[in-house]
Amino acid sequence: MFKKSILVSNILDPLTHEKTDLEQVYKKLYDLNRYESIETRLIEDDELRQSFNKIAKKRKWKTLFWITGVMSREGFNLSSCDETFRKKSVERVYTLMDQANHHICSYVGIASGIIEKENNLNKQINRFSKSIYEIVEYIENKQYSFNLVIEPLDQFAHKKNVLGSLDSWKKLMLNICNISWLKNGRLSFCWDSAHVALNEDDFIETLKVMLPYLSHIHFSDAILNKNSNQYGDYHREFDDKGIINLYTAKNIVHYLKKIKIKDRFLFVAVEVRTKNREDSWRNEEKYYNFLNKIIE
C-alpha cells in the first residue's frame, strides 16, 4: 500500500541549485535504490534531463514534478477572479506541462493560488475548478501520459491559498466531481500534515474523507502557536516542539493500513528542508529511516 518517496528539493535542497550537484544527487539516489518515487522540480538543462530520464527509466521511478514553486515565484494564480489573468495562469501551466512531457514523468503537481480577498473565497474556488477542467482537457488533447496532483496548502496561516481547509476541498469536489479522472485516478490529491494542522483540521477526519482521492502523503512539521515567529509552513526539522514525531506518524499510517484500499499505492515522503550542505545526505538517511519505521 505504501511506497517510499523523497522530496529532493527539500531534503537535499542545498545540492539542487547547481547542475553538477544535482546530477550527482540523482546518480546517488539511483545507487542507493531506496525510493520508488522521486518528487522534484522540472529540469531546465537538456543534458541533465537526459541523464535523469535514463536513470529514472532504469529504476522505474514514479516521478512527480512540482510546478507550485514556479507558479508562485512568477506570481500566477489559477484561482484569480480576474478572468484574463486566470487564463494567463492556465496558459503558463500548459507550457510547464509541455516541458514535463520531455521528462520521465508520472505526475505533475499544482496548488490553487493565493486568496485575493476573503469575501471572494467561494468565487475563487469556482475559478480554480474551471482551471482544473481546462488543464485536464489540455493534457488529454495532447495525449500526455502523466497524471495531475493537487496539493491543498494552508489557507490562513502562511501560504494563504484558496484550496486549503477540508471545507474548501469539499466545495471544490462538488464542482469537479464529474471529471472522469477522479474515478480512474489520473486526478488525485496530496495530503500534507503541516497544511492540515495549520488549517486547524483533524488528521484522521481529513484522511477519512480524502483518502479515496489521495496519491501522495507528506509528513511535514509546523509550529501552531500563532505568537511564535516559526508559526507557518517552514518545512522544519522534526522535534518535540512541533506536531509530527514518530508516534504521531505511526498512528496516521496505522489508520491508513486499517482502511486497506485495494489496488492502490500511497507515495509517502518527509518534507523537511535541509539548510546546510553538509547535512544533506545525513538528513536523507535520517528521514529515510523515519519512513521505514512508520510504514514497517
> Mean of the pLDDT scores?
96
In total, the number of strands is: 10
Neighbour order of strands in the largest sheet? 1-2-3-4-5-6-7-10
* Cα-atom radius of gyration: 18 Å
As residue ranges, the low-confidence spans are: none
Described by strand count, sense and barrel closure, the largest sheet is: 8 strands, parallel, barrel
Strand content: 15-25%
Assign the structural class, choosing from mainly alpha, mainly beta, alpha/beta, alpha+beta, or little secondary structure: alpha/beta
Order of helices and strands: EHHEHEHHEHEHHEHHEEEHEH
Helix content: 40-55%
Q: Cα distance, first to last residue?
A: 11 Å
Number of helix segments? Answer: 12
- Rough shape? globular
Attribute tags:
296 residues; alpha/beta; eight-stranded parallel beta barrel; 10 strands; 16% strand
Describe the structure.
The chain is an alpha/beta fold and 296 residues long. The strands form 2 sheets. The chain has an 8-stranded parallel β-barrel with strand order 1-2-3-4-5-6-7-10. Helix 2 runs parallel beside helix 3 and helix 11 crosses helix 12. The chain is globular, with a radius of gyration of 18 Å. The model has no long low-confidence stretch (mean pLDDT 96).
